[in-house]
Here is the input.
Amino acid sequence: LVRCFRFEPEQRPRSLRELAAELLEIAESETGAPLPCTPPPRPVPGTVDFRVGDRRMTGGGVWKGGRTLLIQASTLIARPYERTLAFWPSGVGTMRSWLLQELNALNEAHRMLVEAPGDPTPERSDLTREALLSAAAVLDRLGDGPAATEKFRACVAATGDEPSTALVDVLTRLANHLRRHGQWEESSQIAERADDAARQLPDAEDSGDTAEAVVAALMSAAHHAEDPGRQLNLVRQAYEVAQAAGLPAGTMVTLTNQGMLLDALGRREEAAELFRHVEERLSDPRPIPAFDVVTRAQTWSALAEHHADDVPAALRCLKRARDLLARLVERGETDLLGALGRTESRLVELHGRLDGHAAATTTALAAQNHLSDAAAEGHGDPLHELARASDHAAAMLWDSDPAAALEAAEAALAIWTRLVQSRGTAAWGVQLAEGHRKAGVCRLKTGQPQRAEECYENGLAVTRHADYPSSPTGSLITASLLQEVAILRRRSGERDQARRLCAEALAHLNEPDHPEHAEARLRTRFALSNLLHDEGRTRQLLDAERENLAEVAAATQRGVLDEGRLAFAAYRTGQAAMNWGDFTCAVEAGEIAARTYLRLVRSGRPLHDAVGLARWSLGINLVHLGRLAAAEEQFEAALREFAEATRTDQTETVLRAIGGDSRSAYVEFIVERLPGIRTARRPSAADVETYLDERSWMLGRSIERAEREGGNSRAWREVAWCVGLLDGLAQEHGGTPVRDLLADAGYLLGTLTSDDRLGAAAHGFRTAAGMWGATARAEPAKTDTSGVLYVDKWLSALLLLMDTHLRDGDRSAAQRVREDLMSAVADACPDRTEEWNRHAAEAWDTAGGADSEPSL
Here is the structure.
């Protein structure tokens, strides 16, 4: 033990292992037998190929190595450098062990210089300052902020008050260090002192070191300034100094910061021009002198934020940043774990916007792991970042692995609770409320609805706290919790309560130009639409979806919502219109959805399934309208999109979220129906009779199905499909048999849907009236096989069409049909005008229109 504390290093044991071996020998000598223990085998340390770049300092530059300082210190105090060999970093081991060896060497060099006899010379003072600055940099890398602060302060004291390059450098580093650790007031004062000292230096163009110090001081002053205009002015001054002195790294940093400030000031075009130059230089394989890897990664991250509206470009830049940081972390630079985790968390958000679920899940887990390691290593205080990464992981996993998602959500919730307890609801209440919401969703996904509701209620309790922020984000979380409870109420059949909660949520979402508010409003409005769907209120559902689409279109035009939301809202509107039977509206909405999704795919979004689904739906409604050529084109294009999704290994997550079925089901639907469409489009004379027999048989089967299933039967969809096919056939191959079957199919569609789908009923009766009218006008005396005049069938279909419009509340359309009816009577059977006028009046009265009888 005494040997361990001897003054001369060479007289001390070289390692604890050597000491342990001696102790074992002493024990065996004293006891006469070996101790009953076996020392563990000597571990083979993981090694790192240490480079000059590993001595990077936060804020740029590299510290002077411990070995170099020991040799220089030995020379200055006239001591053989061989005596310092025991302190030389070995170059073996992990990055952390090497940093500790560096620190040991730097501290020894500082001790030698301070304790050397005689008055300190300027050279000794400079070297002492360098030892302190290097030690501060190492401690900063090791995550020991307080110890690094003390070394920085000691370095400032050792440098003196006379303005010099060295003083500007160390003051700037201390100011930036304090700012990173939240000591804003003191850091601002020191940054101002550094700026004052820099302005007293001689012309920076004459010295690269001086120029670097001035640039750093100006940048630090800009970071501490509160006025954006002053910030921009200081950064531009720094850029001019860097340019004049020929500092490529300084030029890149100042250009990047100018771009960020211009972006913040809304001067997007100027910012874009600067960032274009930055990206060109970053992409150039030629090295940029003194531009370290971390600063390069930070620059790629800044470019990603500039490209925030162009998600593929932002992803490209952020992946470059992530890859650079990941390589350094793999080398053992654990002080970058937090930066890597934050970058990965941002990647999760971008992947989510691009619907890259698998990539987002993997990245979320990596972010959580890296930030956990950062917390364990003691690098800064990344607790809130770790909680946020755990939140991301929960959101990414709750569909694929709900149990793992719940574990991540509970971990995040524990951290948010701890932060609220230590710093209050005003600081972290929003995050705690959102943590309760995510935990509730995970509970629901794991089959625990009651526990989920408890989580939501706990979250709402946080939002009711007096200190809970009334910010847009705070209101957003409150609305989200209300919406989650509304979903539970809907599932339990309490629709009125669910509707009330949705209305309350919408009241909180009062920032129409806030992207997340707009997104949450859309989700809540969709929830209200879903309640109408549950209640079978198909007309009100269509009206609601049209309103939703109008709101989304306006928000998209303002740049508040992503075009993907517009496409989805259009798809929902098309589905609601098809369910009501307004096939023209369904086609218009479907075209918007298909066109928008296709545009997103061409911009790089993995949405081939979404395009295929939109084209599938559009094709169906084109068939309903008899537009078979266009329908065939859409179905064939849909098959190509589904095939491309399969070829590129796109998961079906997006497809199931939008359409609710598998890719193979949609492909099977199209493949089964395309032959029938093609036959109707290009029939031979021999095919027509067979085709009509097949359609007639299908209509008979639909009637049987409707009778068997009752009011909720979906047989009407089969009939609507037949109407469309026969309409297309009639366009290609006229003739009474085709028109007769088409009219019968239309009339059947009208009668099957006349109670609850008046859009489809109107389409059916309109089709029947058109076909029977064509026959009646050509042959007024003609009767069908039952002896009924085609004229009577025509007029009856018009009467039913008028009645349908009246019950739908469309009085103007009903009036037009009534006028068409009486005009047809005047042309085909004028002697029966009084009879049909009476029928029309009675139908109008029955439908509730007697209070405002129209004139004829």
